[in-house]
Amino acid sequence: MTEPAHPRGQRYGFEAFDCAPALRLEAHERVAKLQIDALNARLDRIEELIERLERRLWLAVYGVAAVILAQAFQSVIQATP
Questions:
Q1: Is the dihedral of CA 52, 53, 56, 58 positive or negative?
Q2: Farthest CA pair distance, the chain
Q3: Is residue 16 classed exposed, middle or buried when 0-12, 13-18 and 19+ CB atoms within 10 A define those classes?
Q4: How many alpha carbons lie under 13 Å from residue 63 in its C-beta half-sphere?
Q5: Is pLDDT above 70 for 6?
Q6: What is the 3-state secondary structure (H, E, C) of the chain?
Q7: Alpha-carbon Rg of the chain, whole angstroms?
Q8: Is 1 a residue whose pLDDT tops 50?
Q9: Cα 5 to the chain's mean position, in Å?
Q10: In whole angstroms, what separates CA 72 from the centre of its chain?
Q11: Does residue 69 come out as left (phi exceeding 0), alpha (psi in the -120 to 50 range) or beta?
């Protein structure tokens, strides 16, 4: 006696199995996810470094502005008797 066919072409009583192309696709998806996660981690570290560099740059700008203002103030103090 023959078994009835399953709607997707599989027969009852047999387990579905993964074929090689599907396994390769799953492996590729896992590798791609790992690469994207690593890339995101690197981007986060780069963003942190850029923020620290920006803080240092603004500190330098404020320092230069303070020196210029101090020199201007000193020249005004020396010019007035």
A1: negative
A2: 120
A3: exposed
A4: 6
A5: no
A6: CCCCECCCCCECCCCCCCCHHHHHHHHHHHHHHHHHHHHHHHHHHHHHHHHHHHHHHHHHHHHHHHHHHHHHHHHHHHHCC
A7: 34
A8: no
A9: 49
A10: 46
A11: alpha
Q: Is there a contact between 3 and 10 (Cβ–Cβ < 8 Å)?
A: no
Which residues are bridge partners to 5 per DSSP? 11
Q: What is the pLDDT of residues 20-29, one digit of tens each?
A: 888 888 999 9
Residue for token pair 């502005």: 65
Distance (Å, rounded) from C-alpha 73 to C-alpha 80? Answer: 11
**pLDDT exceeds cutoff 70 at 34:** yes
- Read off the tokens for 9: 């072409």
